[in-house]
Design a protein that fits this description.
CATH superfamily of the largest domain: Spore Coat Polysaccharide Biosynthesis Protein SpsA, Chain A
Subunit structure: Homotetramer.
Function: Involved in the biosynthesis of ADP-glucose, a building block required for the elongation reactions to produce glycogen. Catalyzes the reaction between ATP and alpha-D-glucose 1-phosphate (G1P) to produce pyrophosphate and ADP-Glc.
GO molecular function, one term: glucose-1-phosphate adenylyltransferase activity
Distance between the termini: 53 Å
Oligomer: single chain
Pathway: Glycan biosynthesis; glycogen biosynthesis
Shape: globular
Helix content: 10-25%
Number of domains: 2
Structural class: alpha/beta
CATH class of the largest domain: Alpha Beta
Family: Belongs to the bacterial/plant glucose-1-phosphate adenylyltransferase family.
Number of helices: 8
Length: about 375
Amino acid sequence: MNDEMLGIVLAGGKGTRLGKLTQNQAKPAVPFGGRYRIIDFTMSNCVNSGIRNIGVITQYQPLVLDRHIGNGASWGLDRLDSGVTILQPYSSPDGSKWFAGTAHAIYQNIDYIDSINPKYLLVLSGDHIYKMDYSDMLQQHIDNGASLTVAVIDVPWEDASRFGIMNTDEHDRITEFVEKPAEPKSNHASMGIYIFNWARLREVLVNNFTKNDNMLDFGKNVIPYYLDSGEPVYAYRFSGYWRDVGTIMSLWQANMEFLEPNNGLNMQDRSWRINSRSPLAPPQMLTDTAEVSQSMIVDGCYVAGKIQHSILSANVRVKEGSQVIDSMIMPGASIGRDVTIRRAIIGENAVIGDGVTIDGGDDDIAVVGNGETLGGTSNEE
């Protein structure tokens, strides 16, 4: 795997649907599950699958993500036979300065990919929560003699019109790709995970961009081109836990699922670790007024209030008389006295003053942005 396949993580998404949580960072850098950031799952999947060279393509607000990834040491990628490379936009000879789409981002980084010279290119999204062994997908790709393999997951039929849908024959060869069809013929939704034969993809991108043809995006341009050209394109069916956390509701739901003892991620599985770069912090402190039930409390937290079915990330403070229910509190947030938080996501380093109530209600999720201050601040304990 290390010699055959290079992993490219597309991590430049702005994540506009996450609103305040992505004003100063890309979506893959958004905290998840107390100890992690969203990109940790894709990075860990690569390493666990035997992929030791990874390129991470960034664009929007990359500083937090760059610092988090660093030299890849948290994933064991700081060795002689491995590495992680941050690939940011630059001014190219044709005058391009920004990545105009997923395929264009690959084209702009051909020199880097050629320097690794992989036989296969694994293209991944950096903003999904899941575990997957990419070596199984590669083996199917080889067995099928495929030029392109697309990972798909079966979604409920009533949701199929929200996804890019792959229609297949009895051998899982893709015969048609339809973006958000009004009347879907199948429920095989694209996961945004692709394995290409690099030599062929390189040829397609270079030829089309040389002619100034529109080949900017994999879903809109490259996959239809492959199908129209008669390339062998196959679906790889995935049936495990996978969540697209691109909206506030989906991000909140995935965090709440993370609290369930038998959630699909099975974080207790030591054979498939999800690694992350975690800050050094003192042990958690629970005072004699603290009440905690069905919650995760990470290092560095000070808790003097009531925490129920919630996640407190590193270095969160919850003072006496406050209660946090069905919520996700991101790193460094400070919650004053007599505060009520219910069905909410509180952003990194937010400050919630004494007596404030934040309630998403029964049908919505309240959001406090990164670094946002609500109400007056109270004295430190």
